[in-house]
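Practice problem: predict the structure.
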Amino acid sequence: MGTAPDISKAAQASRKHHDRADDVLIALRRIIRATDLHSKQLTKTSGLTIPQVVVLQSIRDLGEVTTGKVSERVSLSQATVTSILDRLESRGLIERYRSNADRRVVHARLTKEGRAVLRKAPPLLHDRFVTAFAALDTSRQNRIVEVLDEIADMMGAGDIDAAPLLDVAPAPARKSNDPA
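Answer:
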């Protein structure tokens, strides 16, 4: 009869760990859901995706700028930025032109329409986070980063490259003639 309380204690401890894991998963799901809702709201109100807004903002902030500089600023590959710039240009939000000093260099700048769309776009979720995070003391910031890195590792995502954008938009659909 001495083992029954041990089993009960072990079951309770197991349940406690399971509940805490559920708490973490629920918090992660809330973050994912908030990101998804914000992304949809941004697209609905401005017609832009989060990466498009971030690229427009970087062009606004940097002025005349090359794809490479935008790529560095937003932590996205040049190929991704080029694709975003193509979409923005087709909508008349940016214009690209060759440099007078070096015809091999192509610059981008916002159009009047691009500036107007950017002014109407709601603030990005990650901007709100950055402001709140900056208000924390350094030791708390470090603890948060360490814990989130541990969680990413636990989920097998520690080595996944990611830009500092809160965006859960699906990858663009491949055209039928695109290689798999």
